[in-house]
Every structure is written in structure tokens, then in C-alpha cells.
Amino acid sequence: xxxxxxxxxxxxANGDLHHAAERASEVTRRAADxxxxxxxxxxxxxxxxxxxxxxxxxxxxxxxxxxxxRRGVPFDAx
Length: 78
What we know:
This protein is mostly helical. It is built from four helices and no strands. The protein is about 75% helix and about 0% strand. The chain starts with a helix and ends in an 8-residue tail after the last helix. The protein has one domain (about 1-70).
């Protein structure tokens, strides 16, 4: 799954935003199903960067980040 997320980021960097979003969305789903919350957060962060107007992704990203913090993952205050 990590490789798929890297591939999605590479697609985005090359301007293939549609396919990048699709691949990142698939990583989000698979990571959530497997309980891999840090990977889920990373894929949501990429998707949020690709489409910051998607309120559902933004809300899910915020919830996931909050849960990771609750579990002790250190995020910068910024």
C-alpha cells in the first residue's frame, strides 16, 4: 500500500491529478480496512492537497489526525 501511495504522489507531481486522486482514495480505503491509520492519514493528506474543497476528505483527515494524536503520535503544532 505504501508503494501505491508513492505512485499516487508521483502521478500528482506529473500532473495526472485524476488518477492520483483515484489511487490515493484506494489507499485510504485499504488502509482503513487494515487498521493502518498512519497510512490512512497520509493518503488523506494527499487527497486533501489534490482537492482542498472536498469537505468530506478534509473532515476525515481532521478526524484521523485527532485520533492519531490521541494515540500518542506527535504532530508539530503548526
